[in-house]
Amino acid sequence: MDEVDGMAGNEDRGGMQELINMIKITQLPIICMCNDRQAIKIRSLANYCLDLRFHRPRVEQIKSAVLSIACKENVNLPPDVLTNIIDSSNHDIRQVINNVQMWCSSGLIDSEGLKADALGARKDLHLSAFDVIRKVFAPDISGSQGSVATFNESLDLFFQDYNLIPLFVEENYLNVRVHNTHDDKKILQLMSQAASDIATADIISSTIRSSRTGSWSLLPIQGVFSTVSPGRTLRGSLPGGPGGVSFPSWFGKNSTQSRINRTTSELAAHLRLATHCGSSNPLTLLLDYATPISELITRDIDSAIQFLINYQITREDVDSIMELTTWPNRPNRMLSVDSKVSYQYTY
C-alpha cells in the first residue's frame, strides 16, 4: 500500500486504524510505503510494522544502471553529462530515465546541450524543516551541488514552509557555532544582529496576517529578515546528532496560553454573578481574584466548601484556579492540603 502517510480528510477518516486492524488479523504480508516517516499518523502504524528505511541511491548506483540501459539501447551517453542529469533530478531514477529518453529521442545528445537542459530541468525537492534549518545557517555549502547558495536559493529555503521555518530559525540561532571567529564579543554582535532581523521579521509577519491589511506581498521580505539574513549573518553549523536541531517551543507555549485564556474566560463566566460582574474581565480575574480564591479554598474545608457554593465554583474550576496561581517559585497550594481533605472537594 503506497502513500499511507497521505491518509487525511473525511474520505480517509479511520483509515489508519482500519489498516492496523487488517495487519493484526491478516495471514498475508502487507507492505506499507510512506514518504514522511515522522508524521504523527505513521507513528501508530510503525508499532505494527517492520520499519525499513531507504535512502536515496548514490550517483554511482544510478549511473551504472542508466549506462547499462543506454548500452542496450545503443545510445552513447557521456558519464559526466549523466552525472549532471542525475544531480539535476535530485537522484530520482524515474526522472533520470525519462530525461535521457526525451533528450535522446529529440536528438540532444551533445554534451553542452545536455548540460544546459539538465540545469533547466532541475527537480524541486521538498525538504523537512530539520534539513532546511541546517542549510539556512550554512549558505557557503547549501547551494546546488554543494556550492555557495545564491540569494534566491536561500530564499527558497524559507518558502519550503514559510510558517514553520522562521520558528525553527528563532529556536536554533543561538545554538549556531559561528565559523571563522572565536571572538566572543564578535559572536555576541552577530547574535544581536540576527535577533534584530528576527524581530523585524516578526513585525512583518504580524502585518501580513493582519485582518485589516493582509499584505501577503510582503512574504518575500519576511523571508529575507527571518531566514536569509540570520543565516548569512551567523554562517555556522548546528550541533550534530538527533538533538542538534530543536523543535520550536513556540507551539507548546502558544497552546498553554490558549488554554489559559480559555480557562480564565470560563472562570469569569462562572464568577460573574457572585462578584457582581467584578470578574467579568479575564485579566481582572487573573490579577485580583485568582490568588485570594486559591488561599481561601485551601484553608478550612468547611468554609472552603461553603465558599465554593456561594461563588458557584465547580471542581474543575478549582483545578483551573490552582493552575493559574502556580508559578516556578510558588507551588500548587493544593499539594499542601491533606489528601483526605482534598478528596472531599469531589463531592
Structure commentary:
This protein is mainly alpha-helical and 347 residues long. The protein is built from 16 helices and two strands.
How are the elements arranged and paired?
Blueprint: H1 15-25, H2 40-46, H3 59-72, H4 79-88, H5 93-105, H6 111-120, H7 129-136, H8 151-158, H9 165-172, E1 177-178, H10 184-208, H11 219-234, E2 236-237, H12 250-271, H13 282-296, H14 301-310, H15 315-324, H16 339-343
Antiparallel strand pairs: 1-2
Helix pairs in contact: 3-4, 4-6, 7-9, 8-11, 9-11, 10-11, 12-13, 12-15, 13-15
Short note summarizing the structure:
With about 350 residues, the chain is mostly helical. The chain has helices at about 15-25, 40-45, 60-70, 80-90, 95-105, 110-120, 130-135, 150-160, 165-170, 185-210, 220-235, 250-270, 280-295, 300-310, 315-325, 340-345, and strands at about 175-180, 235.
Q: What do the pLDDT scores average to?
A: 81
Oligomer: single chain
The CA-CA distance between the termini, in Å, is 52 Å
Number of helices in the DSSP assignment: 16
Bin the strand percentage.
under 5%
Order of helices and strands: HHHHHHHHHEHHEHHHHH
Architecture of the largest domain, according to CATH?
A: Up-down Bundle
Helix content range: 55-70%
Find the structural class using helix and strand composition: mainly alpha
In the residues, how many domains can be counted? Answer: 4
CATH class of the largest domain: Mainly Alpha
Strand order of the largest sheet: 1-2
Q: What would you call the shape?
A: extended
